[in-house]
Design a protein that fits this description.
The chain is built from 14 helices and 18 strands. It is α+β, with helices and mostly antiparallel strands and about 425 residues long. The protein folds into 2 domains: about 1-245, Beta-Lactamase; about 265-435, Alpha-Beta Plaits (2-Layer Sandwich). Its main location: membrane.
């Protein structure tokens, strides 16, 4: 069984490195191949050695460990004029200088025009060797495992590392294709089955990312690659492949996406996320014949507090304002931070039947009320004033850029008129509206 593990790992790891073509991942696969106790030889069409792992050099010439790269394989295996069929195991003559011995080898499935030979060490060579244990440990720490599925009998072989990727310990379960399917997330099963069937039908390499559900209910991500093995009649008899745990990679990607769309201090959506949401909101408002409001908010006493009390107190103000604004609107609305002391509120599903001035007044009154309570900083109470610019769709602008521009100009117009005031996008040349002293 351990010998089968190494055989499977060698072919699928090599295939996986070619498939993914990403330097960091390819390096991991190459490292695993280099640790394999079985010798791996990749030959060109003229049977010259193109690549080999350290074990191959050791098995061909343990005394000198001559580099076989570029040499014809018949230098060491003189009777190997004709290669065996893929997946066929055979014994052949091995010449080491003036000595001759028998070498057990298997021809693995070809990859393009490359021929692949796997040299099996003898029991004596394996005895006392730590190479197999190093290889198994490297699989475990790299979160990579190999599998072999007999299509006709449904028998499935897992290397030890795969058990852990599916939430089991070796010996807990007997691997089978049905167990594998049950472990795949229900939403991903059809995708995986289609990919595997395509591999069987066409011979194309199988490469899928999917989720697995552990016995404890937790969800993990894996990436599976594999290829089909055919018999002498060209009929598919098995699939062999590799599985890699990509849960941490998925988590890192998700965190990067969140950082790209979120303000790092408050956790609110940033400008990029606001613009994406605004495009969608405008489309909904047009389709449903509703109104939406975009409110730009600028804090009035923030700079003085930040300069006098320090950035820590300034951050506390921003966090408090973010929480208060979020509590003042519906869960379907959005509060975003553009940077500094500027916030934006996006309100959807507003009725077009109400007067524009009444709608703006009601919105502004609610936001001012949420910001009215004092904020205690370093033992003293402070009131944070704000200036609001309100622009409504379709009343003040019909596009995203124009709506943002209208709200922004209205906010600065209100700010020039004093504290705690708002101005409508259409009222740039009229008096500001005061709601609080």
């Amino acid at each position: 069984m351990l010998l089968l593990l190494v055989t499977l790992a060698t072919i699928v790891l090599l295939t996986g490195a070619a498939l993914w073509q990403q330097q960091r991942r390819a390096t991991t696969f190459r490292r695993l191949l280099e640790l394999s106790p079985n010798g791996l030889l990749i030959l060109d069409r003229r049977q010259r050695v193109r690549w080999h792992n350290p074990a191959a050099a050791l098995l061909l010439d343990p005394a000198e460990q001559t580099d076989p790269t570029g040499q014809p394989i018949t230098r060491w295996l003189p009777m190997l004029d004709t290669l065996p069929a893929p997946m066929q195991r055979m014994e052949t003559l091995l010449r080491r200088g003036d000595q001759q011995t028998q070498q057990d080898l298997t021809r693995l499935p070809d990859i393009g025009r490359q021929r692949i030979l796997l040299l099996h060490p003898t029991a004596e060579q394996q005895a006392g060797s730590e190479a197999m244990e190093r290889f198994k440990r490297s699989q475990y720490f790299a979160r990579i495992g190999t599998w072999d599925w007999d299509i006709g009998t449904d028998r499935l072989y897992w290397s030890e590392a795969i058990y852990g990727m599916f939430g089991y310990q070796p010996g807990d379960v007997t691997p089978s294709y049905s167990l594998f399917c049950d472990s795949v997330h229900p939403d991903d099963r059809e995708l995986v089955k289609i990919g595997e069937q395509r591999c069987i039908d066409t011979g194309e390499n199988h490469d899928e990312e999917y989720r697995v559900i552990w016995p404890d209910g937790s969800v993990h991500w894996v990436r599976e690659t594999g290829n089909v093995v055919q018999n002498e009649q060209g009929q598919p008899v098995k699939m062999m492949g590799v599985v890699r745990d990509i849960t941490e990679e998925k988590r890192s990607v998700r965190e990067l996406e969140q950082r790209a769309h979120q303000d790092p201090l408050t956790g609110l959506p940033n400008r990029l996320m606001l613009e994406q949401r605004l495009v969608e909101a405008l489309a909904r408002a047009r389709a449903r014949q509703t109104r939406l409001a975009l409110v730009f908010i600028d804090l009035n006493q923030f700079k003085a507090i930040n300069d006098q009390l320090g950035h820590a107190s300034g951050d506390e103000v921003l966090l408090t304002v973010a929480q208060r604004l979020r509590s003042a609107v519906r869960s379907s609305d959005m509060v975003a931070r553009l940077g500094g002391d500027e916030f934006v509120v996006l309100l959807e599903e507003l009725s077009r039947s109400s007067r524009v001035t009444d709608e703006a007044h009601q919105i502004s009154e609610k936001l001012f009320a949420s910001l009215a309570p004092v904020i205690t900083l370093q033992g003293r109470d402070y009131r944070i004033g704000a200036s609001l610019g309100v622009a409504l769709f379709p009343d003040h602008a019909a596009t995203m850029d124009k709506l943002i521009h209208a709200a922004h100009l209205a906010m600065y117009s209100a700010k020039r008129s004093g504290n705690n005031q708002y101005r409508l996008g259409e009222d740039l040349n009229t008096h500001a509206h005061t709601l609080a002293p």
